[in-house]
């Protein structure tokens, strides 16, 4: 892990403590877990939620953390990474930059950024349901468990 990555993870963790206390579930090694994040305009702040064992739990935590940052700390959201599943492995933090996409939030105020972010995350949830992403991820879990038991 590079020094910059280590510092950025440390800063992200410190910020989570100041922006919103985000509690994650215990993670079992070798399972699919979910993380989500947001970056804010006009500051070097951001937040990351996770790990969670389901997309729904991660989405609820991300929504709550974003609401807290905007409503209680007047942060304007610059970008959001919807909850994305990753395999969990013991020994180090997952690569938080490894998300497949980041959604830019174009807004002129904290309130507008919250509205845009909610709309974007709602669309991501709709797409996950339409394409049955949860079933696909459950099948991946079954494959991982079967190969681990051999």
Give the SSE layout.
Elements: H1 3-19, E1 32-40, E2 46-52, H2 55-73, E3 77-87, E4 103-104, H3 110-130, H4 133-148
Antiparallel strand pairs: 1-2, 1-3, 3-4
Describe this structure in words.
- With 150 residues, the protein is α+β, with helices and mostly antiparallel strands.
- The protein has one domain (3-148).
- The protein contains 4 helices and 4 strands; from the N terminus they run H-E-E-H-E-E-H-H.
- The chain has helices at residues 3-19, 55-73, 110-130, 133-148; strands spanning 32-40, 46-52, 77-87, 103-104.
- The chain has a 4-stranded antiparallel sheet.
- A hairpin with a 5-residue loop joins strand 1 and strand 2 (46-52).
- It starts with a helix and ends with a helix.
- 27% of the residues are buried.
- Residues 1-21 have low confidence and may be disordered.
């Amino acid at each position: 892990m590079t020094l910059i990555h280590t510092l950025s993870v440390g800063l992200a963790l410190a910020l989570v403590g100041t922006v919103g206390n985000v509690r994650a579930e215990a993670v079992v090694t070798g399972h699919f877990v979910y993380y989500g994040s947001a970056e804010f305009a006009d500051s070097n702040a951001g937040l990351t939620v996770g790990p969670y064992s389901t997309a729904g739990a991660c989405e609820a935590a991300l929504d709550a953390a974003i609401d807290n940052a905007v409503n209680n700390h007047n942060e304007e959201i610059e970008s959001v990474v919807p909850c994305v599943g990753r395999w969990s492995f013991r020994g180090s933090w997952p690569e938080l930059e490894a998300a497949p996409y980041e959604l830019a939030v174009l807004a002129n105020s904290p309130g507008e950024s919250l509205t845009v972010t909610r709309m974007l995350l709602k669309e991501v949830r709709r797409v996950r349901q339409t394409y049955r992403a949860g079933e696909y991820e459950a099948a991946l879990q079954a494959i991982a468990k079967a190969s681990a038991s051999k």
